[in-house]
Amino acid sequence: MPKTRGLLLVFLLAFCGTALAQPGPPAGAQSPGERLRSEGDVPGAIAEFWKAYLQDPKNRQNVYNLACALSLNKKTDECFKYLALAIEMEPSLAPLTEPDLLTSRKDPRWPAFEDGLVAAVNARSGHPIKDVEYAKALWRLMARDQAYFLEVGIAGRKVGMRSSVQEAIWDLKFLMADQSQKDLDGLLERKGWPRVAEVGQEAAFAAYLVVMHGAFELQEKYMPAIKAACEAQELPWQRYANIFDRCRFNQNKPQRYGTHTRYNEQTKSEELYPLEDEAKVDEWRKELGLPPLSDYLRQFNIIFPPKKGPGL
């Protein structure tokens, strides 16, 4: 597997799964339908979500999951039916950034659904979205950015990390990413970096995600804007550390803040991507308000012993 794809699989699955939307249940608490969806069995997931719906039609998360699975299965009419039920229970912007709904986005009914949902969310919010058209474009980019990460993982587990199936999905991912980067760059040239007060938290974060997952040139171009967003408290400083280190990685240089790991095929384990200076890494992290590197790396089961001095 090419170096970039290997790092993306390790880093992005962790990063994207926690960065975006609404917290989901721990793996052990997944419903039968969610477990089947996570393994790529969409028809089986639909059957389980439907069974759960008959038992409890007021379970909003299950109704929403059912709508997403129906979209994946190209049952668009049914998807809109259950999506409407889920939104009626609780309006949320989650469908507008949902990769599983990309098929339904192509349906002529989507614009009206999107407009109605935004109006409902704005009516309930103390901070309504002002630039709705800009937000729509960014939500669409986020949905595209998140698409097929789950499928890459499924292919790796079931067919192999170097399989032609996984490589084909990566090819599709990178084609989509290239177009998303061009679209975002055009938006940012016209509109400037999105502000939370104008487009909302999700849409503003979408711009960061596309840049983070983009080419080095895009990252370098917009890193000052990302730093300014952190200074304005619109993004956490962890995001700046992530993209700074990603730029270093894309230049084949050591990282500064220790945000990136990589998979070692010989040891079959995660390891820390090389650091610029092990003795200073915690000092640099502290300047951004980040915890010590050893604490951060525990989630990857990596033990980081900082250097105590020469020869130690």
Helix content: 55-70%
- Rg from alpha-carbon coordinates: 21 Å
Helices and strands: which structural class?
A: mainly alpha
SSE pattern: HHHHHHHHHHHHHHEEHH
Shape: globular
Strand content: under 5%
- Count the DSSP helices: 16
> What is the mean predicted local confidence, pLDDT?
89
DSSP E strands, number: 2
Report on the structure:
This protein has helices at 3-19, 32-38, 42-55, 60-72, 76-89, 102-105, 110-124, 132-146, 149-158, 164-191, 196-199, 201-212, 216-231, 237-250, 281-287, 293-297; strands spanning 261-264, 269-272. The protein is globular. It has a domain at 236-307. A hairpin with a 4-residue loop joins strand 1 (261-264) and strand 2 (269-272). A two-stranded antiparallel sheet has the order 1-2. It is an all-alpha fold and 312 residues long. Helix 8 runs antiparallel to helix 10 (164-191) and helix 9 packs antiparallel against helix 10. The model is unreliable at 9-27 (pLDDT under 50). It contains 16 helices and two strands.
Fill in the keyword field for this structure.
312 residues, mainly alpha, two-stranded antiparallel sheet, 16 helices
Summary of the model, kept short:
The chain is an all-alpha fold. The chain has helices at 3-19, 32-38, 42-55, 60-72, 76-89, 102-105, 110-124, 132-146, 149-158, 164-191, 196-199, 201-212, 216-231, 237-250, 281-287, 293-297, and strands at residues 261-264, 269-272.
